[in-house]
Amino acid sequence: MDTNEQRSTPNLITDLVNQLTNLLRTESRLLRAEFSEKLHQAGAGVAEAAAGAILLLAALLVLLQALVVGLANLGLGVGWASVIVGVVVALIGVMLLRRGTRNLQPSELTPERTLNQVRSDINTVKEQAS
Predict the structure, then answer these.
(1) Residue 66: exposed, middle, or buried by beta-carbon count in 10 A (0-12, 13-18, 19+)?
(2) Which pLDDT does position 1 carry in this prediction?
(3) CA-CA distances (angstroms) from residue 32 to 24, 56, 86, 108?
(4) Which of 1, 55, 60, 115 sits most deeply, having the most CB atoms within 10 A of its CB?
(5) Which phi and psi angles does 104 have, rounded to 5°?
(6) Which helix (H) or strand (E) holds 45?
(7) Over pLDDT 90: what percentage of the chain?
(8) Is residue 117 part of a domain?
(9) How confident is the model at residue 50 (pLDDT cuts 50, 70, 90)?
(10) By the 8 A CB rule, do 90 and 58 touch?
(11) Residue 6, CB half-sphere, CA atoms under 13 Å: how many?
């Protein structure tokens, strides 16, 4: 007889409960680690979005200054130089803001590794049960 066949039902149930408990502990550690990683990613996204917003504000100030100088000079001197600088700063701000908000999308914050591992564990349990 095989050793598995010699084990009693209570022993098998105890082993099953212990294995499931260990599995749940392991999965919860993985989930905590992945959430920590995603939280860090969200923090970086917020920082980039804030940096983008600050640069857009600076761009607005430069563009307003350029408008004032441009209107005062009514020529291509200092005013156009300020416009060019303002446009460049605005483009950089828009790029940072887009990147930051993209990193904050729910699809980017999903704990994918944990979900995949849980699905794999469920499939393994189903296979073992049948």
Answers:
(1) buried
(2) 43
(3) 12, 36, 44, 16
(4) 55
(5) -95, 0
(6) helix 9-73
(7) 9
(8) no
(9) very high
(10) no
(11) 3
What domain count does the chain have? Answer: 1
Residue 25: alpha-carbon gap to chain centroid:
24
Q: Which two tokens stand for residue 56?
A: 């857009």
DSSP letter at 8? Answer: -
Q: What angle do CA 114, 110, 112 make, to 5 degrees?
A: 35
**Torsion sign (Cα): 99, 104, 106, 111:** positive
Burial class of residue 46, CB neighbours in 10 A (0-12, 13-18, 19+) = middle
The pTM assigned to this predicted structure is 0.41
| Least confident piece of the model among 3-12, 44-53, 119-128 | 3-12
* Residue-wise pLDDT tens digits, 105-127: 777 767 888 888 888 888 887 77
Residue 23 is part of which domain span?
8-112
